[in-house]
Each structure stands twice: as structure tokens, then as C-alpha cells.
Design goal:
With about 725 residues, this protein is α/β, with parallel strands linked by helices. The chain has 23 helices and 24 strands. Helices cover about 35% and strands about 20% of the residues. Strands 2, 3, 4, 5, 6, 7, 8 and 9 form an 8-stranded mixed sheet that branches. A 7-stranded parallel sheet has the order 13-14-12-15-16-11-17, sandwiched between helices. A 6-stranded parallel sheet has the order 18-24-23-19-22-21, sandwiched between helices. Helix 7 packs across helix 22, helix 7 crosses helix 23 and helix 9 runs parallel beside helix 10.
Length: about 725
């Protein structure tokens, strides 16, 4: 009997009542299938057992130890509500005192003479060793213990033990799991079955099995993504659309108070030519932050409106929507074109007015967030959809807006992306789109001087911040993490001794290199510490875990100058124009790809003031280890040197493609870690690290789609493609 794990509620598992099910809901886990794909964030490597003396001598943070219990556990009451259980255990190198807090029930577990594998942080106090609350497992000669122990993302109401128990039961249902991948693709790519992959990703037998499991799951995600794009290509070509009136681009450009670059003029001519046809335009404009893509969108909107059609511009944030509205309503208003703003915070009376104007055609242009997808929005003559920062919107979101075309016609589609992209990669990722490249910057745009420093310059960096502020500037500071780990006694995969998901499958030398990387700077703690050092400066922080309204409010305060220093994660890659921003500091710059660093650098240098970008390496930028033994690898040093010496976005994109594969070119398509956005919803795939698999997945998707365009021969695979890529409509219809 085949159990449909996709629809079987997680509450069907033992021990999952209403409270635990609600906790799982916070993690997006509703079904048993969701739980099986709630993947570990890291693995504690408990197979490489150390001696107590070795661990201390090598400065290891967390290690596994085989220790024999030497004394009977004793319980001491420290104060009301707090007790300590203590006993001693030993190996051939010494004796360790082990302590557990409020766990009196363990008194009968640790019998004298029994052997356990402990995993924890050992500390030396003279000739004595101590460990507080280590994880433990009974050891018996000839009975192997798992070398890797999974560490899961948690939320309030869940513990590691509970998640592991529930996943263990879910794994017993794997024999009922249907593998959707055709056998020929699986064998040709040297891929394991999905059932094997899911079992080993949670309970790996060894490193090789873990690497094989990750490879299969990564391939699945990339393959589904590739199939979705192939479906989009097939569905995008030749859709009937209303042709716009033939107009020369000069009719629009002559109205502008400034002269366009040659690249902007070329893009506008391409857009006008596309929109003059009776088949729907499907074009993306790509280029650096600040290269002038918005004017291309304005030209397309002008052409649509002057041809009797409506246009919709969708952006990912309210503050960006308001900025576009302020810029475009002024320009288009002079041409007699009416504009409206639609966001989640627009008052009900104004919303009703906008809804009515769109429905009867009196409102020609609407600029908004995902509020444009609200049930009350209908258009009389929608002829153009523009999506800015297109990588922040899923296929389904765009499909929902495109379905609003009138008279049986599809609207023309114009996408914009602030990522310069090499042509070779554009052919792979945007094969269904025509690409306009803006490879020139507008006159007067300043070059942002870039410097690479490390922790030794910290005091001078604080002085440089003060100097920029004194000259009327504002400062961005970007950190790769949100906040430091809470000391809750449960490891979360960020300990030195843990193997992160990103490290699985890497060559041995790269894994060793990553082990020496310095710890990540966290935005929350960084902002607090900086405020202590600069008490007179208004400082705020934003990150992707904040509520959208709170994030928008802080960004608005920064754009108005009320906040002078903004500490953030990479959420400010998509941001507003802040002309007074003169300094961009990126902490742990060695952890970022070239394209991402270039995106961040583009946030400054938008006004008349001289601007700077300072890339702060977490360890000496010359590759030498610091006092704690931290260092950065050769590839990271090369990336930082490219940023210091190169300012052309397309050259940087090409170098990034050569170094890392295509990962940073679709921001938001990677999983957890230092990247926070999630447009494509990848759990485990990284399009940079997994470049080889990406191209294989695209090749196999093209072959399969050519043989079976409807995927009728692979019903299980078809179902998954639809589930992954069609949140608001089926792109394969």
C-alpha cells in the first residue's frame, strides 16, 4: 500500500498533538512529507573520538569522547528549582568531572564501570577536565554508534529529541514512497533513490552515504526548477497580446530632463519593438544597481498608457513601491497619465478608489507590492506587467498578475534585475526571455572607492564611520548572520565541531579551509555593540526575520535620515535610493560571492558626496591565521582582491561565474545560512556550489521535455513540478 506522505498530516505521528503540531506549523511542517524534508542544518561529527588531553591541546570546541564512569552520580541542591548532578569519568589521558543541571533522573543511568560516548566542550582546570551538559550515548563493544548526529532547525515548542523521534517514525514509511525520477536519469547521473537519500540525510551511515544523499536531493530541486523553466518557455511563446501603437522612442525620451546612455536607448528601442507586436513581450532588463533600469520601465508604461492600455508595476517592498510612485507619478503625470499606489498599508477608502479606477479603466497605471494580487483587484485593459527585482517574485505570483489581461489577450511582461549577468548564464536561466543588458552607467555616477581590511583596523573603522557621519553621510553595515546562538544547551549546528550542510560533498581541502573560517558577525549584537561605542549616533538594525511592517518602518527612517547608521543582513540588497549613504561596510566579507558584494556596493555612491565601500575580513586578509587560529582561504582572498580592483559589473559577474558557478545570479534561490531570501524555495541546493549538478539538471530537463512536453509519462514528476512552481496557477496549462 502506497501512503501519500504529501497529504498525511504530521499529527498522525505518535506524540504529535495539537501543541506540537502548532509548533511544526511555524516551521512550515504540516504533513509527514514536510517533516521528511525538514532537513538537518548540520551534523555533529561524533565518530572521530578524541582523548581529553588531545582535545584541550588542539583547542577543539566540541568533541566526542569515550569515557568510563568512575564515580556514582551525586545530586546537590544549589537553590530552589536548581540542582546539579555530578560524577567523574575517565579515559587513558585523564579524568573529567561531568555536570548536568536539573536532570536528577540521570542518576541511575551512569553506573560505575559503564562506558558512554559523550559529546561536548571540555575545559581544563589545572590537571582536571570538566564538561557541562554533554550529549551522551551508551557504548557497547562491537555495537557501532552513528558517526554523525543530525542537528535540526527548531522553534519554540520543539526540542531536538522530539524532532528526531518524529522523523524516526516518519522514516519507517519510506518503503511506501514513490520515486518520481525516471530510472534512466537516476542511473545515468549516478544518483541514489529518493528513499535512500531521505534516510541517509537524517541518519547517515557514513560520510559517503551522506554525500550521496545530499547529491540526490540537490539534483531533485534543481531538476524540478529546470523543468519549471522549460514549462514556462513552452507556455510563454506566441501568446496573443494587444499590439501597442507604433511610436518612436524619441517621443518619450524627448520628455526627459536628462540624456540617456546608449544602453538605455537600446533597451527602450527593443521594448518598443516588442510591444508593437501582437504577441506578448517577454523581456528582462539586467544591469548594475543605479544603471537606470527604471526609466526603461517608465518608457514601457508610457507606451502602454498612450495606446489605451493599463500598466502594473510590482515591487517587493512597500518603501520601494512608494519611491517608484514618487518618481513615476511625477514624470507620467506631466504626460496626463494617471498613477495609483497600492500596498498593504493603503487605507480602505483609497483602496476602494484604486480598485474602482482599475476596474473601469480610469486609472491607467498602478504601482504596488503583492497587494496587486489581492482578490479585489481587476483591470479593464491590462496591457503591461512590470516586475522590479524580479528574483523576489515566484513564478506563481507573476502568473497570477499575467492572468489579469483583458479581452483574452496576455499582457506584455517586462522584468528587471539588478544583477549583471554573463550571456552564457542568461541563455540557461532566461532561455524563455529576451534579455536587454544595460552595461553603461549614467553620467555623473561616482565610482565607489573600495578597501579591504580586517579586525586589526577596528578602531580606525569606528573613526571612519564618525568621519562620514560628520560630513553629512549615512552608513550601511552588513553582517552575514541575524543573531548569535542562544545558550540553551542544545547545539544548533554552528559549533566548531559540527559539519554544516554546505560542507557536505566539498573536496577535503575546501572543508579544512572552512573549518578555519572566523565566526560570523551577527546584525543584532553588532548593532548593540556599535551603539555602545557610538552612543550619540542613531543606529538601527533590520533583518529578514523581522515583520515586514517593522522592517519597512526602519528602512523609511533610514531613507529620511532619522537613522544615520543601518546595520542589516543582506535584505538591503533590494533597497531604496538613499543619496546621502556614503559608506558601505561588509563584515565577514570573505563569506560573500562577488556578485553579492557588488550589489551591496551599489547601495552607496548615489549622491554627490564621495562614497566608500569597506570589506572587512573576519581574519587577516593576507591569509595568515589570527591569534585564535582563524584564517580565510585562497578563493576568498581572490574575491576580495577582485572587488578592490574591479568596478565593472559584467566583469565581476563573469569572474563570479568562473569562481563559484551561477549561485549569486539568482538571489533568493538558496537555502538557509547567510542567505535569507527564498524565492525559489530551495531547501538544500546552492546554485553556486552545485553548478555542475545545475547544468546536468538543465540538460536532462531539456531532453525529457523534448520527449514528453506534458510529462504525461511521469505523473509523479508532473505533480511535483506543479506543486513547487505554481502557487497561484498552473503554468503548464
Amino acid at each position: 500500500m502506497i501512503v501519500d506522505l504529501r497529504t498525511t498530516a504530521v499529527s498522525e505521528l505518535r506524540g504529535v498533538g495539537k501543541v506540537r503540531a502548532a509548533a511544526y506549523e511555524k516551521l512550515g511542517v504540516r504533513t509527514v512529507g514536510d517533516l521528511l524534508y525538514h532537513l538537518p542544518r548540520a551534523y555533529e561529527n561524533r565518530g572521530a573520538v578524541r582523548l581529553l588531553s588531545q582535545a584541550v591541546a588542539d583547542g577543539q570546541t566540541r568533541c566526542p569522547f569515550l569515557l568510563t564512569v568512575a564515580t556514582t552520580p551525586r545530586v546537590a541542591r544549589i537553590r530552589q528549582g536548581l540542582s546539579l548532578l555530578k560524577f567523574r569519568a575517565f579515559d587513558e589521558s585523564g579524568t573529567c568531572e561531568i555536570t548536568y543541571f536539573n536532570q536528577d533522573y540521570l542518576r541511575t543511568t551512569f553506573l560505575v564501570g559503564s562506558v558512554f560516548r559523550f559529546y561536548g566542550k571540555v575545559e581544563a582546570q589545572g590537571n582536571r577536565y570538566t564538561m557541562a551538559s554533554p550529549a551522551w550515548e551508551p557504548y557497547a563493544e562491537g555495537v557501532p554508534l552513528p558517526p554523525f548526529v543530525s542537528v535540526y532547525p527548531l522553534c519554540e515548542g520543539l526540542t531536538q529529541k522530539q524532532v528526531k523521534q518524529n522523523i524516526s517514525e516518519a522514516l519507517t514509511l519510506l518503503p511506501t514512497l514513490e520515486d518520481p525520477l525516471p530510472a534512466g536519469i537516476r542511473s545515468g547521473g549516478g544518483l541514489c533513490t529518493r528513499a535512500f537519500a531521505l534516510r541517509q540525510i537524517h541518519c547517515p551511515e557514513d560520510y559517503e552515504a551522506l554525500a550521496a544523499a545530499k547529491k540526490r536531493l540537490v539534483f531533485d530541486e534543481l531538476f524540478l526548477f529546470a523543468l519549471g523553466l522549460e514549462a514556462a518557455k513552452a507556455n510563454s511563446g506566441g501568446k496573443p497580446a494587444a499590439a501597442c501603437a507604433q511610436k518612436e522612442p524619441e517621443r518619450f525620451t524627448a520628455l526627459l530632463p536628462y540624456r540617456l546612455t546608449g544602453a538605455q536607448e537600446r533597451a527602450i528601442r527593443q521594448i518598443f519593438a516588442d510591444m508593437g507586436k501582437n504577441t506578448a513581450m517577454n523581456r528582462i532588463v539586467v544591469g548594475d544597481v543605479g544603471c537606470g533600469k527604471t526609466v526603461c520601465a517608465a518608457a514601457a508604461i508610457f507606451l502602454a498608457a498612450s495606446s489605451g492600455m493599463q500598466a502594473a508595476l510590482m515591487v517587493p517592498t512597500e518603501i520601494l513601491a512608494r519611491q517608484h510612485f514618487a518618481d513615476l507619478s511625477s514624470l507620467l503625470g506631466e504626460l496626463g497619465i494617471s498613477c495609483g499606489l497600492l500596498t498593504g498599508t493603503v487605507r480602505s477608502a483609497e483602496k476602494r478608489k484604486i480598485y474602482a479606477g482599475l476596474a473601469d479603466g480610469s486609472l491607467q497605471v498602478v504601482i504596488g507590492t503583492q497587494a496587486l494580487l489581492s482578490a479585489g483587484v481587476s483591470f479593464a485593459h491590462l496591457g503591461l506587467v512590470v516586475a522590479d527585482e524580479q528574483h523576489r517574485f515566484g513564478v506563481g505570483q507573476r502568473a497570477a498578475l499575467l492572468s489579469a489581461g483583458a479581452d483574452g489577450n496576455a499582457p506584455h511582461l517586462l522584468l528587471m534585475s539588478a544583477t549583471p549577468i554573463p550571456r552564457s548564464l542568461a541563455l540557461v536561466l532566461y532561455g524563455d526571455l529576451q534579455v536587454s543588458r544595460i552595461d553603461e552607467m549614467p553620467p555623473g555616477r561616482q565610482r565607489v572607492d573600495t578597501f579591504v581590511v580586517d579586525e586589526r583596523y577596528r578602531a580606525r573603522l569606528d573613526g571612519f564611520i564618525r568621519k562620514n557621519l560628520a560630513q553629512g553621510g549615512q552608513v550601511y553595515i552588513v553582517c552575514p548572520a541575524v543573531e548569535e546562538r542562544d545558550g540553551d544547551g542544545e547545539t544548533d549546528g554552528r559549533d566548531d565541531g559540527a559539519l554544516s550542510m554546505e560542507e557536505i560533498g566539498l573536496p577535503e581541502d575546501e572543508r579544512r579551509e572552512r573549518e578555519t573560517m572566523p565566526p560570523l558577525k551577527a546584525a543584532v549584537q553588532y548593532a548593540e555593540q556599535l551603539q555602545q561605542r557610538l552612543p550619540e549616533v542613531p543606529i538601527a538594525f533590520v533583518h529578514g526575520k523581522m515583520k515586514a511592517a517593522d522592517k519597512e518602518a526602519i528602512m523609511r527612517r533610514f531613507s529620511t535620515g532619522e537613522v544615520r547608521v543601518l546595520v542589516s543582513t543582506t535584505v538591503i540588497e533590494v533597497g531604496v535610493n538613499v543619496p546621502d549613504a556614503t559608506l558601505m561596510m561588509v563584515e565577514n566579507a570573505e563569506r560573500f560571492g562577488l556578485s553579492q558584494l557588488h550589489q551591496l556596493r551599489g547601495r552607496v555612491g548615489r549622491g554627490r558626496k564621495k562614497s566608500y565601500c569597506v570589506l572587512v575580513a573576519g581574519a587577516p586578509a593576507d591569509g595568515q591565521p589570527d591569534a585564535e587560529g582563524h584564517s580565510i582561504g585562497q578563493k576568498a582572498r581572490e574575491r576580495l582582491e577582485v572587488m578592490r580592483t574591479t568596478y565593472d559589473g559584467y566583469e565581476i559577474a563573469q569572474r563570479d561565474l568562473q569562481q563559484r558557478g551561477p549561485g549569486d545570479f539568482i538571489a533568493g534561490c538558496t537555502g538557509q545560512g547567510i542567505r535569507q531570501s527564498g524565492a525559489a524555495g530551495f531547501r538544500i541546493a546552492d546554485m553556486g556550489e552545485d553548478a555542475e549538478l545545475l547544468y546536468t539538471a538543465f540538460d536532462e530537463a531539456k531532453k525529457l521535455f523534448a520527449e514528453d512536453p506534458t510529462l504525461s509519462g511521469c505523473p509523479a514528476l508532473l505533480r511535483e513540478v506543479q506543486e513547487v512552481l505554481t502557487a497561484n496557477g498552473n503554468i503548464m496549462n
